[in-house]
Amino acid sequence: KQEVTQIPAALSVPEGENLVLNCSFTDSAIYNLQWFRQDPGKGLTSLLLIQSSQREQTSGRLNASLDKSSGRSTLYIAASQPGDSATYLCAVGGSNYKLTFGKGTLLTVNP
Amino acid sequence: ETGVTQSPTHLIKTRGQQVTLRCSSQSGHNTVSWYQQALGQGPQFIFQYYREEENGRGNFPPRFSGLQFPNYSSELNVNALELDDSALYLCASSAASGRTYNEQFFGPGTRLTVL
Question: Among A91, A90, A60, which residue's Cα sits nearest to residue A75?
Answer without folding.
Answer: A90
